[in-house]
Amino acid sequence: LLRRQRSPLRGLCSPGSAPRPRTSRTGGRQAGMSGNVEYGLVSDDYVVSDDFRRDPSYPVRAGAPGGGGEGAPLLAPGGQAFATTFTQIEHVSIQTPATAQPSLIHIDGKAIDAHRYEFPGWVPPNELKFETLEPVDRNTLHHPTKGTLNELYSTAICGNDLTSSVLYVIGVTTTMSGQLAPLCLLIVGFVLYLFKSVYGEAGTAIPLNGGAYNLLLNTTSKSVASLAACLTILSYVATAVVSATESMTYAANLCPWIDVYWWTLGLLGIFCVLSVMGVSESAVVALGIFLVHMASMVFLIMVGGVYMLQNSEIFANNLREPLKYDWPLAILFGFCTAMLGVTGFETSANYIEEQQKGVFPKTLFNSWIIVFVMNPILSIVCLGVLDLGTLEAHHRDVLAKTAYDAGGKYFGLWISADAALVLAGSVLTAYVGVVGLVRRLALDRCLPQVLLAENRWRRTNHLIPITFFVLCASLFIILGGRVRSLASVYTMSFLCVMALFSVGNMMLKYKRGRIRRPVRATWPSCFAALAAVLIALIGNIMLAPGHLIYFLLYFGIVAFITIVMFERIRILKYFLYLVSQGPVHLQDRFAGVTQLAMDKIKSQKIVFFAKNDNLEVLNKAVSYVQSNELTKWLKVVYVYDDLSDPMIKAIAENLRVIDRCFPKVVIDFVLVQGSFSPEVVAQVSARLGVPRNFMFIACPGDRFPHDIGDFGGVRMITH
């Protein structure tokens, strides 16, 4: 720590500020460049002392800090300037009292992690000095990709994954429910209608990337949100590997010289390169695939409909066939398998920031109407062209077989080519979704932050798609190209994510009911959607209980990585304790490096914007930070209009009380004159070196003039 050797009850600016003379807004005298200066300014009388704040400038990469996955430069010239003043009352170091709990770790007789700090409380304004924050450019508040996707592009990206499921869902549903398959698919359409409002409410209330993770992060704890993130990542891995394999299987039927094994790896690599290029280029490719597929499906319905009218006895005979199960069980099992026909619907919420304002609800509606209309009609067409025996025998390529019988050989080949193309589009959807999610997880320190590295060519986080490709390719190689077990993992993880999204939306209604959002789901809709997904999940487990083992195995691997990231401070402490009990040469080699790693992790500053002096809210904020974040450093920011505001002194005195209740948390008080807005938040973010996704607020009311998404990832943590 760069610490001033002065009275412990003084207000200080953050270390690292450039010293320069400033004038107090309350009439204080000007301060010089050298020697001791007045409170609130940086002087040259610092000494170096051991402390966990060894790197207060984190993050250090160019363009930081950014928020909500952006990492955009905030100090670019131009745009509208906002004259905002800034000062701090910082914590001071105190001697550890004799009654404090002794440190269990000693290196060379020196106690580790035994520092004590105290918030000094209220400091009169005439003893503080103020600085003017640098203006920000409105155009740099968000990442360049924010709001770049229109309705058509947004629908195409998730639509490829959603509509590709029809290639196999009709066959497996008919296998379970026979001629009742169209009814099962229609029921799934009604369930998806419920989820349309559930996803719409959550996405319009908190329009940030991350899907279920972002929703649960703003309504529950970080550990619960990470559970949803693990399931979503697992779903994307399974989607990419299974879809790539199936795509190349269809391609091999068209071109026998294609080696499915190596071409699957090549397809995963191609979309990795495309993701490195950026979401806009990915959207153009996705749109082309989507339009070709939709045109092919419409043409198949027309050709199949004509064939069905000319051969009406096929459909009549299928209706007279006995069911494999009693009709209630046939509908139940058919519904459970038909829920696979909506995989991909959840993807749109993972790139919501890239969609233009107001597009997200339209994307959900377009996705729903496609499933609700197309899947049952295609099922009826298949029943009108193929008998049930043939349909069950060709359940993996039922549409290609239907096209072959109704339109001839070349039409069958065309549908097979379309299947290969749209399944490849599902791989692209997995890449787009995982990039948005992992970027948010890395910014929240749930995953290694090295993943946030940007390339100068496209300003994309290239390590995320590269890592995802390595993960998918290695998994495919380990399985030897046999991805049957991954298909079951895909099913269960997708249904679990849908269930968690329903729960998250209920928590949003209960805890964040005051947030303004244009879409609202009723309580009965939320409960009905959750019940439907749980029934489908239990039904799929009953149909194939052995697949549960594969799901738990893959989920355990992903969850283990996340748990290690959450508990890395505790793990390092255990390791440091073992080192301290070992030989001196081991201490010399590992103790310092380990302690530096712990200090680096704990040096992340967290900001909470206080609205008033409510002691309960302040206590909740500190408790949340202590329970969910790997840091011990909290800066409470209050944005005021005038220094005569009595709330300033009240907050300072309450923080002094809270500081004594939480001796392990270091608290600072930051005063910013201005109005609370996205621009002011960006200015504070740049001045303190705190990314906006590490800035927290209480839940705003329905009269709040700004959209939560405009703040670049600011998180809500209290009612």
What does this structure look like?
By secondary structure, the chain is an alpha/beta fold. It is 55% helix and 7% strand. It contains 22 helices and 13 strands. The protein has helices at residues 151-164, 166-177, 181-205, 212-217, 222-254, 260-277, 279-310, 312-320, 327-338, 359-385, 388-393, 398-407, 409-443, 463-478, 484-511, 523-543, 547-566, 568-580, 584-602, 615-628, 646-661, 678-688; strands at 2-4, 46-48, 85-89, 92-94, 106-107, 110-111, 116-118, 131-132, 605-609, 633-640, 666-673, 695-698, 715-718. The chain has a seven-stranded mixed beta sheet, with helices on both faces. Helix 2 (166-177) packs across helix 3 (181-205), helix 2 (166-177) packs antiparallel against helix 9 (327-338) and helix 3 (181-205) packs across helix 9 (327-338). The radius of gyration is 29 Å and the shape is elongated. The two termini are 35 Å apart.
Annotation, overall tally of beta strands: 13
Rounded mean pLDDT score: 79
* Amino-to-carboxy terminus distance: 35 Å
**Number of alpha- plus pi-helical segments:** 22
Task: Name the strands of the widest sheet in spatial order.
Answer: 8-3-11-10-9-12-13
Q: Outline the low-pLDDT stretches.
A: 1-82
* Multimeric state: single chain
Rounded Rg: 29 Å
Percent range for β-strand residues: 5-15%
- Percent helix, as a range, is 55-70%
What is the general shape? elongated
Major sheet characteristics: 7 strands, mixed
Structural class: alpha/beta
Brief sketch in words of this structure:
The chain is α/β, with parallel strands linked by helices and 719 residues long.
